Write a sequence for this structure.
C-alpha cells in the first residue's frame, strides 16, 4: 500500500473518530437537557401544587370567618375570628407568600401572571372577611366567584406550563349533589 493509501486510511480513521465523538456529545447534551427538564418540571409541579393548596386553604378560612360574621351564609362552618384564629391565618398568609416566591422563580410568564391575579382575588376575600372597605360593589358572592375563576385559570396555566393536557373535570358537576336535597343550580369544579 502506498503512501496515499495509508494517508486515506489514516484520514478515514480520524474522521470516524471525530464523527463518533461529535455524535456522542450531541446525544449526551440531549440527555442532559431532558434530565434538566424533568428536574425543573418536578420542582415546578411541587411549587404550583403547594401554592394552590395554600391559597385554597386561606380562602376557606376567610369564607368560614365571613360566615361567622354573617357576611355570607353559604358553604362552610363558622370560624370565629379570635386572636388565635387571626394569628393562624396571618401565619398561613406568610406561608402562602413564601410559596408564591417559589412559583415566581420557577413559573413561566402566563402562570406567574395568573398567580398575581389569584393573590388579588384572595386578598379581596380577606378584606371582605375582615370587613375592610373596598370599592367593589359585588359583595362576598361575586368576590368568591372571581376567586374560583382566578384559581381555575391559575391551575390551567400551571398545567400548560407543565405540558399536562386536559382539565380537572370534563363537564360541570352539579353542586350540591342530589343526595343533599338542595336544588341549587350552582356548579363547583
Amino acid at each position: 500500500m502506498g503512501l496515499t493509501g495509508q494517508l486515506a486510511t489514516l484520514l478515514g480513521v480520524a474522521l470516524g473518530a471525530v464523527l463518533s465523538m461529535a455524535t456522542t456529545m450531541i446525544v449526551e447534551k440531549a440527555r442532559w437537557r431532558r434530565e434538566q427538564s424533568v428536574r425543573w418540571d418536578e420542582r415546578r409541579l411541587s411549587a404550583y401544587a403547594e401554592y394552590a393548596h395554600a391559597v385554597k386553604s386561606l380562602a376557606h378560612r376567610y369564607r368560614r370567618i365571613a360566615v361567622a360574621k354573617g357576611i355570607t351564609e353559604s358553604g362552610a362552618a363558622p370560624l370565629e375570628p379570635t386572636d388565635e384564629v387571626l394569628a393562624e391565618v396571618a401565619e398561613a398568609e406568610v406561608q402562602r407568600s413564601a410559596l408564591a416566591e417559589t412559583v415566581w422563580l420557577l413559573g413561566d410568564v402566563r402562570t406567574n401572571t395568573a398567580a398575581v391575579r389569584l393573590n388579588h382575588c384572595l386578598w379581596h376575600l380577606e378584606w371582605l372577611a375582615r370587613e375592610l372597605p373596598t370599592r367593589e360593589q359585588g359583595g362576598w358572592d361575586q368576590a368568591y366567584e372571581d376567586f374560583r375563576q382566578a384559581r381555575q385559570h391559575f391551575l390551567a396555566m400551571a398545567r400548560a406550563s407543565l405540558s399536562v393536557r386536559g382539565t380537572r373535570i370534563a363537564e360541570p358537576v352539579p353542586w350540591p349533589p342530589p343526595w343533599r336535597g338542595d336544588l341549587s343550580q350552582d356548579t363547583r369544579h
User: Anything to note?
Assistant: The chain has a mean pLDDT of 86. DSSP finds four helices and no strands in the chain. The helical segments are 3-68, 83-106, 109-129, 139-161.
